[in-house]
Design goal:
This protein is 47% helix and 11% strand. The protein folds into three domains: 114 residues, no CATH class; 240 residues, 3-Layer(aba) Sandwich (Rossmann fold); 92 residues, Helicase, Ruva Protein, domain 3, CATH 1.10.8.60. The chain starts with a strand and ends with a helix. It has 21 helices and eleven strands.
């Protein structure tokens, strides 16, 4: 019978053996989560037995207890292992830690910093309230708590309607405004994961209205239906209109004569999605074997996002904030997030018709990421690019680590680039290129080594 031990599924008749093996795999720093996944695959294919794996890992618990007895701080090792572990499996639960303490005398306090318990890693199946929905997303996204908490209500209403099979009329679309690299796409991805339903990203700047030459909204939905091969799987889809700010521009109003006819038709296409009891009829299949299916738009959750560069000037104009004459501090102005002050009036000035904005619930502006927030993301969040580099090296028998001053240097560089966390990936890729080039092709478990990257390394690599 298959059961989960320390977050990993094991099929074992003897529960004590299963607990023993799972504990060893979790505690051993030389066995990465990726390797554990490979072992599980071998187990399921009868490539190795649990007895053989127990024999190979007999040393783990005695070695670990010896480390504790010598006063070594194992908390950083376990915390790093836990981050990697929960990216692939589930986190250990109370029963797992009780097993460690009862059978080996290793308590949860021994494992984690300052004798505190490990925060439970939330999983989508644990979510039963908007607060837990927000807590789940906060595991991955930093510096945007206010927006996450507001969006959590909308997404939880969507999840509740999906779980109970009804149409929620109290959820409402939202517009996300924020500069590049602040986490808009990542935030929506994790909200989608929390809802356990498909997310359809529509690049608004690249599609055309129905009746115009090019890819339109119906074409995109048709492709999604063909991918999932079942229209019912898209019944509660999340539609994200990416780069929604590009559909029009400052000073050109689609509801007036100076607007582009294509923009106006696009707005009309989108507004069809807000009509009650008017499902979209979409033909799928080959021309000689087409079938029609209906998607109930009432069940969709619709989100718009965009950078909206320049909307700050509209806000300043409305607030009568003129440029100062003479000596002034531009830094003070840069510290004000004018996008937080955007109103429906400003969006009409940007170019959207009131009849569209009247159907949208909230306008939520994200914060630009400070260097401190970028540093925090690299240090504390799950599923960020730094962890992928550490995991890659671990799979090649290298324990890669970064000093705090090195990470702060990366954070400062990313912040000064104006590209937010998006630039961290570029910086890491450029800096670690030489390291990866020199990785030995003959690395084995017998010559595992540790490498710490410091600030000077980054200075030499990227200047």
């Amino acid at each position: 019978m298959k059961k989960t031990y320390f977050g990993i599924p094991l099929n074992c008749e003897n529960e004590l053996d299963a607990f023993n093996l799972a504990a060893r795999l979790f505690l051993c720093p030389r066995i990465s989560a990726q390797h554990v996944a490979a072992y599980l695959n071998m187990l399921s294919n009868n490539g190795i037995s649990i007895e053989k794996m127990l024999e190979k890992t007999n040393h783990v618990i005695p070695d670990f207890r010896a480390s504790l007895g010598n006063g070594e701080d194992v908390s950083s090792i376990i915390n790093n292992k836990l981050k990697e572990w929960t990216n692939i499996f589930a986190a250990p639960d109370k029963e797992d830690f009780e097993f460690l303490e009862t059978n080996f005398g290793i308590s949860e306090k021994h494992l984690f910093t300052n004798n505190t318990k490990v925060p439970r890693t939330l999983r989508p199946k644990d979510i039963n309230s908007p607060r837990l929905m927000a807590d789940y997303v906060k595991q991955y996204i930093k510096g945007q708590d206010d927006v996450i908490e507001k969006l959590a209500v909308t997404f939880y209403h969507h999840l509740d309607s999906l779980n109970k099979g009804y149409t929620s009329y109290i959820k409402s679309p939202a517009i996300l405004i924020g500069p590049t690299g602040c986490g808009k796409s990542e935030m929506l991805r994790h909200f989608s994961n929390a809802c356990r339903c498909p997310i359809i990203r529509i690049n608004t700047s690249e599609i055309t209205p129905t009746g115009w030459r090019g890819l339109n909204l119906t074409d995109i939905l048709r492709k999604e239906i063909e991918i999932y091969d079942d229209p019912n799987k898209l019944k509660y889809a999340i539609l994200v209109f990416h780069e929604f700010d590009k559909i029009t521009h400052y000073g050109t109003r689609v509801n007036k004569s100076d607007g582009n006819a294509s923009d106006l038709d696009m707005i009309r296409d989108i507004m069809r999605l807000f009509e009650k009891d008017h499902p979209l009829t979409i033909e799928t299949g080959k021309s000689f074997s087409t079938t029609c299916c209906e998607l109930p738009t009432d069940n969709f959750l619709i989100i718009f996002d965009g950078a909206f560069y320049g909307i700050e000037e509209i806000v300043k104009k409305r607030l009568n904030i003129n440029k100062t004459i003479g000596f002034s501090s531009k830094a003070n102005d840069n510290n004000i997030n004018y996008q937080k002050m955007v109103t429906e009036e400003d969006l009409i000035e940007w170019g959207y018709p009131p009849e569209l904005l009247g159907r949208i619930g909230e306008v939520l502006a994200l914060n630009p990421l400070s260097s401190e927030t970028i540093f925090e993301i690299m240090k504390t969040t799950k599923d960020n690019i730094l962890n992928y580099h550490i995991e890659y090296c671990s799979n090649n028998n290298i324990d890669l680590s970064f000093s705090d001053d090195a990470l702060q240097y990366v954070a400062d560089k990313a912040y000064s680039s104006g590209l937010g966390f998006r630039n961290v990936k570029t910086i890491l890729s450029k800096a670690l290129n030489n390291l990866y080039y020199e990785l030995s092709e003959n690395q084995t478990s017998n010559n595992r080594r540790s490498i710490e990257i410091d600030k000077e390394y980054f200075k030499k690599s990227i200047g």
